[in-house]
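debug: dumping io for the single-chain case to check the tokenizer round-trip. Nothing else runs in this session.
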Amino acid sequence: MTTQTIDQWVKKLAAVSQQDLCKALENINFKINEERFNIGMVCYGTTVVVDSLPPQTFRNLFKMPDDASDAQSKTAQLVGAVVLRAYTCFVYMWNDVLERGLDAIPQNSPAWPYREFFRRGCQDNGDDSIAQHIRNSLAHSTFEIRYDRASIRLVDRNWSEETSLFALHQQLCPLIKDFYLCAYQVKYGLHKP
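debug: decoded output
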């Protein structure tokens, strides 16, 4: 199996339109826990708020030490938002019934990259998909923030990958949030073709 980087997956997933993704999800059988979805979206929204807090407000809210520099405060703010957003997208909102349902997406579907992202590996040879590796790393706290490179190293058993905080926070997580939003819209008849 060819290993693809998170950056490569971001490009593949971003190339799928919301319209094509929702259309593909209309043809699979899945369930969504509405309360869990709603709480997940609130958690995701909280990361947007944390991102936009003025530095002094963040320092006051989160009791940063008086001698912490602005750069240290801003770094803590970013890392907190990145970890909460990624945890929300990959762990809290995880829906194994929905992910297994992606197996029904045919290879010629424009939404195929989502099927591959969530299911490849577990289907090929009993290994985990990249989504599962990311989820496991976040759930078991086997990740390391690399402050000097503004990156995160995700580790899950024999798999690891380092990616920029920006790629995870501002590129991959929004795509995963939109995936769940699309699934919710399809499940509850809110998607308009």
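debug: round-trip ok. The chain has one domain: 6-187.
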